[in-house]
Specification:
Two copies of one chain form a homodimer. Chain A is α/β, with parallel strands linked by helices and 401 residues long. Helix content of chain A is 39%, strand content 16%. Chain A has three domains: 12-188, Amidase signature (AS) enzymes, CATH 3.90.1300; 200-250 and 306-400, Amidase signature (AS) domain (Amidase signature (AS) enzymes, Alpha-Beta Complex); 251-298, no CATH class. Chain A has helices spanning 49-54, 63-70, 113-120, 137-143, 177-188, 205-210, 213-230, 239-243, 250-276, 282-292, 300-316, 341-361, 389-400, and strands at residues 12-18, 30-34, 74-79, 126-131, 146-149, 169-174, 200-204, 234-237, 321-326, 365-373, 376-383. In chain A, helix 5 runs antiparallel to helix 13 (389-400). Chains A and B meet through helix 2, helix 9 and helix 11 of A and helix 2, helix 9 and helix 11 of B.
Amino acid sequence: MSIATNDPSNAFIEHFDLPPLCEGILDGLKFTVKDNIDLAGYRTSYGSPTWRDAHVAPVHNALCVDQLLAAGARCIGKVVADEFTYSLDGESFYFGTPRNAKAPDRVPGGSSSGSAASVAGGFADFSLCTDSGGSIRVPASLCGLWGMRPSLHRVSEAGVLPFQPSVSTVGVLADRFDVLDRAMRVLLNEHTTNIPAPKHIVVLQDALEIADPAVRGQAETALQQIADRSGITLEPVSFAEIIGEDAPLNACNMEGLRDLQTAEFQSTVGNWIEACKPELGATFAMAYENVRTFDRVAVLDNIANCEHLFKRINAFFTEDTVVCFPTTPKKAPLKGSLNTLEAVMEFYDPTMTITAFSGVARLPEVSAPMLTVEGCPVGLSFVAGHYQDAYLLNALKTLIY
Amino acid sequence: MSIATNDPSNAFIEHFDLPPLCEGILDGLKFTVKDNIDLAGYRTSYGSPTWRDAHVAPVHNALCVDQLLAAGARCIGKVVADEFTYSLDGESFYFGTPRNAKAPDRVPGGSSSGSAASVAGGFADFSLCTDSGGSIRVPASLCGLWGMRPSLHRVSEAGVLPFQPSVSTVGVLADRFDVLDRAMRVLLNEHTTNIPAPKHIVVLQDALEIADPAVRGQAETALQQIADRSGITLEPVSFAEIIGEDAPLNACNMEGLRDLQTAEFQSTVGNWIEACKPELGATFAMAYENVRTFDRVAVLDNIANCEHLFKRINAFFTEDTVVCFPTTPKKAPLKGSLNTLEAVMEFYDPTMTITAFSGVARLPEVSAPMLTVEGCPVGLSFVAGHYQDAYLLNALKTLIY
């Protein structure tokens, strides 16, 4: 195991120091890189020692790494990812469980577990990481960090290991909003001015109903405070009203995204696993069995439905809308508690019902560390229309500060 | 060499017969698959025997292949791609030059050279292939076929080898418009109804000026016929008018896309080449030397400019606009003539100036086989706004039939 020593966050695969390439708006900031994103001269593990040993070290950084270094940031290490980034809990069979600094007896969330732990522990200002089904948003929520998943394909994926090409995004976890804002603007190549102010704060009722009562209560209170301060009236809306069809929020997950994700994962990591038969961690092995035996042709209608949902959801957004809901329906589970199918389902099903909204609609989402539930952090999410990433960041500045 | 025998098209790597998985709107149609797209049980070569031998056969088809098989089409073979799909000419050092049936002494164009030859030669109704810098559009133009590059990331890339993630698309070459239309609708999961009719036929003047006089003359005649028949007045517009800034069309290529493509190619194929030092064909080796020594950090401003150009170009489109221009500025070069730097530049520079328009703006483009220049085919291109793929197909039906 190549886990770095003397690491109270249990987040680092390797510590090093890549100095900035130029001065820029990220001067003085330190960042870590999730271990599915290439760093020149270091083997990328994808959360799997077998994958790491079967692949050579890249000669080039991922393009997104160079963007950050060229904007003044300093890269201080490579951090743990869940095995093949195919998890939301952050308990790696191989690399252990990175520390959730604000709830040390609980999981950090995954798959960007080391990213979250390195920032939450105060070792880095931000971390460059990836999100498909919630891998940035879930750790942001459970560790009390800012996290952004941008619109699909707005940030370059060159040098990021292929995962679920129609779903995967590159984004950031950060300890402060202004750090998230600056790092994301660099990655997005975003210099838009003349951005409209938010006028519609839409509260997605289905997500509140799925959430634990304590999470729901905290979210309603925080949203009311935003409404009071901004003078914008909250607009409670159901998912059925958003898409103009009689369907629950879970349609995004169960009649679309999950099947698309599984089918695409078969073609990326699945092919490699079938060819190389690597050792698999116990939890991943259980999840992968569903991937291996998955009949994608039987669900092509669900996969096609993603396009339909994308269109209906996006038609709802105007240039001055944000849609809000708790990022996760629950606080972080206790470490080691996700060891039965029942416990896994109780965590994953409601979580993925919520995270699938932005996933299926290719939308930018920011999780803000605004809720505290029974002593644990939970995030409040803000979502904007497709490619309205700059508007979303600007809206948060307006609404929260 | 594993080139199929008894193949007058010189297009096939392997002949086989994968029957349809279901009945559907592609019943009775035969297709080929470019050799950078996975077919279960066959090694994918990426146009490079060294790559092929270094990788195992995939267990799963690419998702896009399964979509076509499930819609009633039959897959009849794997066809030649240029080395690492990094070329527009279609003369493979390893697999030879697939036959341009309508201009047999000329190159078929690349990198989807085998795709074009298998369709132009009458062996397949359509071919599943990819386009980043023009790899569908250029062979469509030079071989007299229909070709569509969809909006960026509208078709799943799971099981398609990573190339230039911010630019690459999966699309189709076909012998008839109705085949292109049906195959693309399957890949796009597109069932939109209530599509507006085209009202604005915009003619991009910069592209006409770059084109050879004979190509320009033919394009102007064909466009006038479309205008006369449809009753829609042609609107000549310069690129500067489209983006509202004083810049030539070549800004898309030279102040944006080409640098983004080179940087992203470093991180995908480049890393592998540097690690494995494979044998490289002479032409590719020459091109790759520029990739290897490319300083991406020095051009990050150009890469960022892609986002700016995307926004400006897309702001020009309404829901009833098509922008038209010759797909390529020239007819196909003679086989074997692209053997000096001067000849290569004379073909590539004006071609990529035109193809970069849709590339940088992530737009759908269809090349229609409508021009004949000195006995050779040349395509006429139609471009619509981002994600207006269904509108574009519909507009062509209205304008051309």
